[in-house]
Amino acid sequence: MRNSIIITGASGFVGYNLQEYLKDAHDVHAMRVRYVANQRFDLACDAIIHLAGKAHDLKKVSNPTDYYEANFELTKQLFDSFLASTASVFIFMSTVKAVADAIDGILTEEAMPNPKTHYGIAKQQAEQYLLSQELPNGKRVYILRPCMIHGPGNKGNLNLLYQLVSKRLPWPLGDFKNERSFLSIENLCFVVQELLENAMIPSGIYQVSDDIALSTNELITLLGSSLGEQSRIIAIPSPWIKGIAKLGDHLHLPLNTERLQKLTENYVVSNKKIIKAIGKPLPIASKEGLLKTFTSFKK
């Protein structure tokens, strides 16, 4: 059965891929939204996938109010409109950063949220609002917390790593030992489709990640394999690298403390809850998805 699906934030990386993934089975419509006080939305559809919002600003030049209007107030307005509509499914794209910016061990849905940034706090406020409202019979709401999403066409930190390895430059952060989770865009689209089509999956919060976490050093090795090159990893003492990153905060260098954290932090996310709820394995293995992403950087 073809459903009518509205996607907000459809022009972004995730939105574009979701439209392409879902269009053969459903009628997908993009909707432009922004926060305006006291507005309501006409949601003539079966499901809403809410992606629109303000992304985390690595340069830290954004007004904090922008995060709360775009990520909390807008979500609140859209969800209130959903409750009053005939639509039956609401999917909110939150983030693992709504729980924690740094973690010890493995992050699960049971962790007590303690976000530290305006971005994470606003997303957490939106989550809490959605969970606090009484859900009418026949309606489902899913809060997805993806980790770092990657895929063809995504120009993020993985592309920076690719540029370094492709120029045959050595990777200087070999002294850092870490593991982190990634999420292939194909796996994310698969999860969203399952939530849309399986009414037996209960409402709630679900973390989304690939099955296997990798270290940054493993990523560098995998990047070399995708290029047919042998990666060079050197271990400059981590205190030296941290000092350079602090300089980067003030001198606007390619490496700053926030980017260094993203490249070297431990951030392992459990996906057991969503896999159990769906009852199916993810279609793309961790390394397979990353290789697809790395191959796309050649074009």
Describe the structure.
The chain has a 6-stranded parallel sheet with strand order 2-1-3-4-6-9, sandwiched between helices. A two-stranded parallel sheet has the order 5-10. It starts with a strand and ends with a helix. With 299 residues, it is α/β, with parallel strands linked by helices. It is globular, with a radius of gyration of 20 Å. 40% of the residues lie in helices and 14% in strands. The chain has helices at residues 13-22, 64-83, 118-132, 157-166, 185-197, 216-227, 238-251, 257-264, 272-278, 286-296; strands at residues 4-8, 27-31, 47-50, 89-93, 106-107, 140-146, 148-150, 182-184, 204-208, 268-269. Helix 2 (64-83) packs parallel to helix 3 and helix 7 (238-251) packs across helix 8.
**Cα Rg:** 20 Å
Low-confidence stretches: none
Proportion of residues in extended strands: 5-15%
Strand order of the largest sheet: 2-1-3-4-6-9
Short recap of the structure:
With 299 residues, the chain is an alpha/beta fold.
Ordered list of secondary-structure elements with their pairings:
Elements: E1 4-8, H1 13-22, E2 27-31, E3 47-50, H2 64-83, E4 89-93, E5 106-107, H3 118-132, E6 140-146, E7 148-150, H4 157-166, E8 182-184, H5 185-197, E9 204-208, H6 216-227, H7 238-251, H8 257-264, E10 268-269, H9 272-278, H10 286-296
Parallel strand pairs: 1-2, 1-3, 3-4, 4-6, 5-10, 6-9, 7-8
Helix pairs in contact: 1-5, 2-3, 4-6, 6-10, 7-8
